[in-house]
């Protein structure tokens, strides 16, 4: 029977080693959280890195990880060494591609060694997945860590359907052309039959880079190569709407979270939920909240900002520095505006369970989500879905992919602290019926275009992607 194989760097579960033994924890980040429930309910196999260095594990532990992942999570472990992690994951993925594709051009590092590691590790993924592939299978590769893999698979398995989805923005040609290995990366991607992005802007940017760098024209988002046709389209990723809308708070949230909810009932709560990442605009958000307290003193002692920030990519300097910057800003605001009875900003540096998140979302009057640049931002959708009473309001920056789908939110420019401050006030003061109307529209959209719809639409398009020759005219 033919099967669908997901391949991504991050698996839905991350393994870590402690003195007490091996620990298996749910991964966070949009790719893992978004696809997890779909994978659990379906019949996919998911190949990826377990999150721990192979050389930190004994042989026995390695095989126990591989067995547990296979038997309990339907996952295939792709083992990486600490050198791979340093050079490929920390290096090329997160110090080259990530900042470039998010328009942080001055943060990009170009190093031949990390590029070589990227090629080597993409090959490792190929070697791990290759024995699984049978005629009629569908391979769905995810994200920027594996952009060379589609072509590697195509060369050995010209007849399987290969899909690729980019979970981060594809930048404009003027940005993308700065990449030293720009042609090689595009050629890697062009091994796919179908390439998906969150928005039409990213589709346009990609097609423009392909045309200008590789010379391929497209006709109705399809490009004819010698070996196959490549189709490109936008598939805005959804969430597991029912899970966020229907999970009962009281039964599922932890006691600690319920205590938090109880103890903060006398103030208006603004919440922010992110991975610790410089693309998320967290320092600007804190500065904007400070501006809010300065501009609207009537809100002092009546509101609090809860930052729930998950550790991410520990060991990369830019990420480690960001934590210190946030801590300083938080204490600056608290020092300046706090009173003996009230602290304006609360910073929790931890990952909470999805059930606890739902409780936080439901309890918060406003979600403040202001990334400088974000492929989609699923947190925004999770918040809207969780507030089934339609009483919350979303303040979101225009540079999040989700902004193009959630136009009823209060949309702001993340660099404009005054505008964010005014946006917070507007959200807190919005009349109930206005909030209700806006939320109902957003609910309708995200309940229909949920993660199942997204995955099925992508996979159905991939199944139906053209095999025959198509005609392409220069634009
Ligand atoms: P990204 O993929 O860049 O991390 P998204 O907003 O698309 O951004 O996805 C983040 C995912 O990780 C969401 O599903 C969110 O619920 C989860 N997440 C983010 N921060 C936390 C946290 N502190 N605790 C638990 N889950 C988190
Ligand atoms: C973003 C990326 C994912 C990644 C996630 C978490 O969502 O698009 O590919 O898995 O961040 O980052 P991490 O480096 O921990 O996998």
Short key terms for the protein model shown above:
single chain; alpha/beta; eight-stranded mixed β-sheet; six-stranded parallel β-sheet; binds adenosine-5'-diphosphate; binds 6-O-phosphono-alpha-D-glucopyranose
Any overview of this molecule?
- With 475 residues, the chain is an alpha/beta fold.
- It has 18 helices and 16 strands.
- The chain is globular and about 65 Å long.
- The relative contact order is 0.11.
- Adenosine-5'-diphosphate (ADP) binds at residues 28-30, 33, 273-275, 308-310, 351-352, 357, 376-379, 382.
Brief write-up:
It is built from 18 helices and 16 strands.
Tell me which ligands are bound: adenosine-5'-diphosphate, 6-O-phosphono-alpha-D-glucopyranose
**Global geometry:** globular
Count of alpha/pi helices:
18
Uncertain residue ranges: none
Calculate the mean pLDDT score and round it: 95
Number of strands: 16
Strand order of the largest sheet: 5-4-1-6-7-8-10-9
Whole-angstrom Rg: 23 Å
User: How many angstroms does the end-to-end distance come to?
Assistant: 42 Å
Summarize the helices and strands and which ones pair or pack:
Elements: E1 4-10, E2 13-18, E3 21-26, H1 30-41, E4 45-49, H2 59-73, E5 75-77, H3 82-101, H4 112-129, E6 138-142, H5 149-156, E7 161-165, H6 173-176, H7 182-189, E8 194-197, H8 200-214, E9 222-224, E10 229-234, H9 241-246, H10 249-252, H11 255-263, E11 268-275, H12 282-295, E12 303-310, H13 317-337, E13 345-349, H14 354-363, E14 366-369, H15 378-386, E15 393-397, E16 410-412, H16 417-429, H17 432-448, H18 451-463
Parallel strand pairs: 1-4, 1-6, 4-5, 6-7, 7-8, 8-10, 11-12, 11-14, 12-13, 14-15, 15-16
Antiparallel strand pairs: 2-3, 9-10
The structure holds adenosine-5'-diphosphate and 6-O-phosphono-alpha-D-glucopyranose.
6-O-phosphono-alpha-D-glucopyranose binds next to helix 1.
